[in-house]
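Reopening: Endolytic peptidoglycan transglycosylase RlpA still failing for me.
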Amino acid sequence: MLSHSRILNISCAVLISLLTLSACKSKPPSTHVEKKPEQAASTTPEPTHKEVGEASWYGPGLQGKQTANGDTFDQKDLTAAHPSLPMGSKATVTNLENGKKVEVIINDRGPNVENRVIDLSGAAANKLDMKKDGTVQVKIVTKAKHKKRPVKRKAKPSPAK
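Support: Ran it again with your exact input. Result attached.
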């Protein structure tokens, strides 16, 4: 028959083994999907939003006012108001009548006129050569953002005390 201290030693060893094993983390199954060679070679992200419609420009009387994302509106910046694109996203707007393009940053909500798809700052309207007419048919395209991978850095040794 086993002595009381021997049973206690075995029990402790089993308990320590179980605790050690429970702390081990197993690797979850990989969900990595290998890209086809032509996809992997592409560096241009696919469009995430395409829209065609009437654009207008806005700003007279709004210079220096706060936009929907908290920026101060400046007619000289290449910005725009859109009803649903994420704040801070970049959109390429093409004037369908003359082919001119401009890249704007969405920093406001609008337009507040029915049947319009985007309101452009004065500077953006100038780039599209649409200020005189006031409105123009445009195509809006946004691209997915490239996610930057964090740079792995070696840990700096802590200073000796």
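The domain at 58-143 is CATH 2.40.40.10 (Barwin-like endoglucanases). If you still see a failure, please send the error message rather than a screenshot.
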